[in-house]
Amino acid sequence: MGLLEAHKALAGKTAIVVGGAAGFLGRGASLALAQAGVRVICCDNDREGIASIGADAASLPGGVEAHYADVADPASLDEFYDYLDAEIGQADILINMPGGVRRSLFDKTNREDHARDIRLNYGYVVDSCQRALPLLRRSGNGGSIVNFTTIEAHRGAATFAVYAGAKAGTTNFSRALAVELGAEQIRVNCIATDTTLARASNAALAPEDFQRLAELGADALSKAIEFYVPQKRAPEVDDVMNGLLFLVSDLSRAITGTTLHIDGGTIASLGFLDWPYGDSFMPAPLGGTLKKLGDSHD
């Protein structure tokens, strides 16, 4: 099966997109699927996004139907799935998108912070998959589950400790579930992003982080990306959506239990940065950068 045939075969399928009405990636997922002819039923806690996404998708082959649900509240997510059980009946695709964290040292956080990080980045995924499974089975054609994780699930992400643990839980949960559901042809995979325009990624930084960047000028963040990302640019929304369409299409029918890293190469580098002032790729700065840093403090 070729690329065009695989995308054409998505038309007429039904997708559930949790967190699919707002944000660059969530909204992008719903619209990309609708463009491919998929009927999308999404939920989100952003009421403005819910109100506007239907109109944005009106000209697309698949269309988007949006509902309110807050994944932080198990009862709210259950209400959404109760609707799906009663009114939709079956589905072919499940996308679990939401997440969230605030950067902080572990000893500056509390149990409420931990509980929220675990719920937003792991707990709701378990609930969503369990509620969606009967819907996927009713299609009779297998199905595809894609859970969004992060590069932080694969490295020691200091100041994101509980978040990183929760995302790692989602990653290994997805791997284990893929094994359980393999014989039913229900595939379970993850997409791990890193530096994107996602709302949750931006919200993770503290106000003082943004202030320091602003003081350095408009191109400070793009310069940081050049040091950090081997491809010298952050992935765009379309890059992530291309990976998503691949994982939900029959092009990946033999792929399950894996994580697709869409990050411009940061999972490959894992700490090897392209330092300036002649230092090039190393985990830590060498003489050129260290001298410049020293000069700036003189």
How would you summarize the topology of this molecule?
Elements: H1 3-8, E1 14-18, H2 23-35, E2 39-44, H3 47-56, E3 64-68, H4 74-88, E4 93-96, H5 111-139, E5 143-150, H6 161-181, E6 186-193, H7 199-203, H8 207-216, H9 220-228, H10 237-248, E7 259-262, H11 266-269, E8 273-275, E9 280-282, H12 287-297
Parallel strand pairs: 1-2, 1-4, 2-3, 4-5, 5-6, 6-7
Antiparallel strand pairs: 8-9
Helix pairs in contact: 2-10, 4-5, 5-6
Task: Summarize the model shown.
The chain is an alpha/beta fold and 298 residues long. It has one domain (3-264): NAD(P)-binding Rossmann-like Domain (Rossmann fold, 3-Layer(aba) Sandwich), CATH 3.40.50.720.
Q: Give me the number of helical elements.
A: 12
Give the averaged pLDDT, no decimals. 91
* Low-confidence runs: none
Described by strand count, sense and barrel closure, the largest sheet is:
7 strands, parallel
**In CATH, what is the homologous superfamily?**
NAD(P)-binding Rossmann-like Domain
Q: State the CATH architecture.
A: 3-Layer(aba) Sandwich
How many domains? The number is 1
* Beta strand count: 9
Question: What is the succession of H and E elements?
Answer: HEHEHEHEHEHEHHHHEHEEH
Q: In what order do the strands lie side by side in the largest sheet?
A: 3-2-1-4-5-6-7
Helix content: 40-55%
- Portion of residues in beta strands equals 15-25%
Q: Report the radius of gyration as a whole number of Å.
A: 20 Å
* General form: globular
